[in-house]
Amino acid sequence: MNNYNYTVILFVFFGFTKLLTGQEILTVEEAVQIALENNYQIKIAANELQIDEVSVSVGNAGMLPQVALGLTDNNSIQNLSQTRSDGTKVERDNARNNSLNYGIALDWTLFDGLKMFADYEQLKETQKLGEAQLKQVILNKVGEVMITYFDLVQQKQQLTALDSTIIISEQRVDLAYNRFTIGKASKLEVLNAQVDLNTDKTLMQRQKELYVNTKVQLNEYLARDLKIDFEVVPEIFVDQALQLTELETLVGKENPSLQAEQINKKISELELKQTRALRYPTIFASTGYNFGRTESSLGFTTNSNSRGWNYGFGASLNVFDGFNQNRNEKIAKIQIENSEVAIAQRTQELMSLLNTTYQTYLTNISLIELEGKNEAIAQENMEITVEKYKIGIIPTIEFRTAQLNYINAKVRHSNAKFQAKLSEIILKQLAGNLVL
């Protein structure tokens, strides 16, 4: 069957289902898209990444000069008394004094042991770390959405199975009652059939409760109205082509948590460069243009004005700081070693989880086929049992056993497909390529 025909069939099926139920058919692709647009944690992680992106600038790394405008206006009113060197005595009440200074100043660090370049590289690595963290959040949330979605599919299948077994139990009650009325069965058989029917209905109510609650949980992950009702697709399809060697390669390249550890190691190396830069002198330059005016009611100079440039250079060098420089460099080197250990530890954890999950994946794949055969056998056995029960050649307990075997086989088959899909999702999460 080509892709066009398959798409047409799906479209017709979903349209017919929606016509019957009157509810939205939510596909897993649509659920993931809604989560990517609405999920709160994804939004927060995306905003954190924007902060990191904005922070990457040469100015934030200290490479650009600092320019500032300044204004100072001092005023005073005083009662003054002066005796000058020639013996002249001057007194004045409410003497006013004013000093006004304003101008522009520039300060620029020309050399700091290349620390500013290490700062700039650290800002870029921090942005990469934010990208890895955002990818991890997206993988986690998409995984949660997909697992919850396919859990709903499984629960829907179990509801269908329970619905079919209730129909069978109702038929059994009718048959038992008809046999009782014509004297071919005791009332005990009717009561047992009714008890089993009520038990099935109880299970159905519990399953419906779980189904509704899981819908609420999925709406929560999608960050939308919790009361929105919808239907899910009827079947789970599992990717059975995953290969362990390919997954191991992808984990080493694409896993965001491992990428974060590798970025942290680069940041630790840059922190060592920043620490070593303190061994070198810091050279800076400054310049500015100032205006000044002074007015005084009393004194040899009653009015003064000035304006002009000022400039200069300076340097500083840490000669001795109580051996803190050596100590800080040793600490920075140890932090690099810890980063290497963290990478090795995380790699081993991921590979261990990948291998165990892959083995579970293979087991679940084989169980899908096995449980499918069991379901077919249980269905055939159920059909034969119903016919035999109708003509009264098998006891009630044998009928109930066949009925329970049938419902349990359907549930196990559905659960096997869900567990295989769960393993598939986890494997793709670990490989960092959880795509639809």
Automatic annotation (TrEMBL):
GO MF annotation, one: efflux transmembrane transporter activity
Pfam families in the cross-refs: OEP
Cellular compartments annotated: Cell outer membrane
Keyword terms: Cell outer membrane, Membrane, Transmembrane, Transmembrane beta strand, Transport
GO cellular component annotations of the record: cell outer membrane; efflux pump complex
Organism domain of life: Bacteria
The name this protein goes by in its record: Outer membrane protein TolC
Coiled coil location: none
InterPro entries: OMP_efflux, TolC-like
Record-stated family: Belongs to the outer membrane factor (OMF) (TC 1.B.17) family.
Transmembrane segment boundaries: none
